Amino acid sequence: MDKFVIKFENVGLRYGMGPEILRDLNFQITPGSFQFLTGPSGAGKSSLLRLLFLSLKPTRGLISVFGNDTASILPDELPAIRQKIGIVFQDFRLLDHLTTYENVALPLRVRGKEDVSYRKDVIELLSWVGLKDRINVYPPVLSGGEKQRAAIARALINQPKLLLADEPTGNLDPSLARRLLRLFAELNRSGTSVVIATHDLDLMDQYQTRRLVLNEGRLQVYD
Amino acid sequence: MKGGCRFMTKYKSYRRKKLQPGRAPVPKISDADYGKPATKGDPVKILPRQNKQSSIVPRETIAGNSLMLVIAIMSFLLCITFGAVSLVSDTASAWQNDIAREVTIQIRPVDGVNMTEALERAQTIASGKPGIDSVTIISDDETARLLEPWLGAGLSLEELPIPRLLSVKLKTGKRPDFDELRRELTESVPGASLDDHQAWAGRLTRMAGATVIIGVAIMLLVMAATVLTVIFATKGAMSGNRHVVEVLHFVGADDKYIADQFQRHFLLLGLKGGAVGGLIATLGFLIIGYWTGQNSATPEGDQMTALFGTFSVGTTGYSGVIVIVILIAFLTAYTSRATVRRQISALEQN
Description:
Helix content of chain A: 25-40%
Structural class of chain B: alpha+beta
Radius of gyration of chain A: 17 Å
Number of strands of chain A: 10
Mean pLDDT of chain A: 87
Number of helices of chain A: 7
Low-confidence stretches of chain A: none
Order of helices and strands of chain A: EEEHEEHEHHHEHEHEE
CATH superfamily of the largest domain in chain A: P-loop containing nucleotide triphosphate hydrolases
Structural class of chain A: alpha/beta
Strand order of the largest sheet of chain B: 2-3-1-4
Number of helices of chain B: 11
Oligomer: heterodimer
Helix content of chain B: 55-70%
């Protein structure tokens, strides 16, 4: 097993010819760890998440994902690596023309699996996130919280080794936010490394765990 | 959560096998707030099962329907143009063949020469030559009818020095020696001359060639307009699907899978649109062909038949329609695939 899920060494990022928005990032995410990624708006949280998800390439430095140097990963190898990473977007990114069930099953479907092979698992996961009764409902009909849970279920269905969540509680009321966070914590207890990007200090205060604090492009790690 | 959820049981088991302990500390939390466990029993049987999965690419979208309409219109225009060019080309070819299969012997009235005898002698000479199928004397009545537009009705050929004609039909593939025939006619029949239509056929060939070239040029322009319209309309429809490409990309679909999904969807869409346009164009050809057939005895019908034959586009025209429909469908599919590839490439390079 890899010692680190992800490791950053002197990573910097700039868009085009603009200023460097992430500077000298050095940290690692260990298997089964749980951390918040926080910082003021515009500090680069989303950019860092995109680096973690391999949808951005660093301008400099070294990123190692599951033991692979991202600079040497071939484009054909990226899908297989992404399948080990679940991501929950701030804006959910559910497909409106697919039902909740189909959205959650999407990561398995795109791997060429047959519906019969994963149907039970998808339904159980939907039950677990409290969406069993919304299985054949289309996203436009779902509430914000339901969409969020569907997005989380989609991120989990592949049993990822790393879960990234961008402001997962941003649009939710406090009680639902707490409940979702407990869901992440439960997932973490089952072995998945979790990174949650948030600027909700109240929420973070409820969990004394590792914090990655971004400020003006630099990262402070509080273990 | 208290153990019940099969997914989580499997999930934890999977994790225990794959990962080692020693995780970063997380707070112990109450099970009470977790998602509710699955209903006991087999949830597959409890919950309604969908018969068919939705397509990954959205169907029946406004952009998709608009694209299909554009494809139908452009394929209709292209099929009509191709049919018209095919018709003109066939007709020009038929004109040339008709003229090439016939020559005319003309006998001018000469004092002291019996016209009837001269006609029969010329017919005998021409009939004996190799490569000649038949020689027909244009009768007095036919000659009078030919001259009627200029000299009026009730014409008496005896009163006017009108040249007489013999229509000579040639055998296919074997042309007679016109020089020898011409020499023999002029020696044996006073006032006889042979017109092999070469001057007329040359002009007609040039005119027909020019007509076909103009038609082909128009068809190429329509084809270029169709290709560009289909490409831009497909790109427009694809831009509305960008979020689908992104989501598929982020959930781990490989590029080929995503491209295949869109290519299949847009191939069907192109086939539908192209088939509608091609079908309407084919119906148009059939209706005009039927109309000219029904009006063949009328002056309008005769004029149309004289110009365009039976107004039938023929096998080439209908085959062309099928080829156009297939080509447009493949063009649509290829454009969608290339657009997906470009969108994915942009996602990777960001």
